Amino acid sequence: MTTYIIRRLLLMIPTLLGITIMVFAISRFAPGSPFNLSLGADSEMDSERAAQITEQRQALYGLDQPLHVQYCQWLSRIVRLDFGQSIKHRRPVSELIAQRLPITLTLNLISFVIIYALSLPMGTLAAVKHQKFLDRGLGAILLMLWSLPAMWVGQMLIGYFCNPTFFQWFPSAGLSSNNAEMMPFIPWLADRLWHLVLPVICMTYSGFAYLTKQVRAGMLDNLRMDYVRTARAKGLSGRVVVWRHAFRNSIIPVITIMATVLPAMFGGSVIIESIFSIPGMGLLAFEAVTTRDYNVIMAVATIAGSLNLIGLLLADIAYAIADPRISFEGR
């Protein structure tokens, strides 16, 4: 396993290199310029003066160099974890990421834990109660949840649960109240969790619906296997048969899904953070794309690609833990 992990880590290097090349090419060849966007607001500036300012700013950020030189310079900085300067914020990108990445990771990890904590028992219960009222009712609810777009759900939650006309139970934006800095730790934590309720719901319901259906399908396949009938014939209790035998053999597809859920949630947080005005990586990425902030775009894409590759590696390790018959040493 150790040899396999080392080999996979080495293979991540060319994969990440390919990701950065693609993102660099797409961002550079996209129409528009960050400097044209900022100068466009000043309609009184003559074109000659605007062109002069644009040239000066391009030289300041190294954008007057050939594309391959720009990429190589950026790649040499990335090895030192230096993502350059943000064109929009005029601050080091690493500082922006250090401020915003923990917020997005917290939001995603809470949602990830909730999804699995609910999906595993609910999917198993639906499989055990196959074709009964609970299974049919849960299936209808999951189909409805899977069909709802996150943007619409977010707007509806804000409209109903943050509106004085209906139920003003939760705040509509941000992560903390105005006086949160003055609060002791416990009230501060309660205030933070209170602000995270609606965003977490938006990030959880779709993944919960999808994963529950997958767990149910995997459990149904295993509950029909001969080894389950043999276990029941031996007189083992239903709980032991379901959880110790059928569930363990159904966990492999769930692990496969786990490798993609967290990176997908990281990408989906762009919408959720924009709706609820959460200053995380998702909102930072959205602002970077709209303002052509190249260094921020490249940094966010690199981090997202790294998370995806790490998720795949963790899934392979989890395979061997869940099923001792799986071994990667011979590959």
Helix proportion: over 70%
Distance between the termini: 10 Å
Beta percentage is under 5%
Helix-and-strand structural type: mainly alpha
How many strands, which pairing sense, and closed or not: the largest β-sheet? none
> What is the N-to-C order of secondary-structure elements (H for helix, E for strand)?
HHHHHHHHHHHH
CATH architecture of the domain at 95-322: Orthogonal Bundle
Number of strands: 0
Summarize the SSE layout with pairings.
Layout: H1 2-29, H2 34-39, H3 47-60, H4 67-79, H5 93-128, H6 133-147, H7 150-161, H8 185-223, H9 226-233, H10 238-275, H11 281-291, H12 294-322
Helix pairs in contact: 1-12, 5-8, 5-10, 6-8, 7-8, 8-10, 9-10, 10-11, 10-12, 11-12
Structure description:
- It is built from twelve helices and no strands.
- By secondary structure, it is mostly helical.
- It has a domain at 95-322: Orthogonal Bundle (MetI-like fold), CATH 1.10.3720.
- Helix 5 (93-128) crosses helix 8 and helix 10 (238-275) crosses helix 11 (281-291).
- The mean pLDDT is 80.
Short description:
Helices cover 75% and strands 0% of the residues.
Any key phrases for this structure?
12 helices; globular; 75% helix; mainly alpha; 331 residues; MetI-like fold; 0% strand
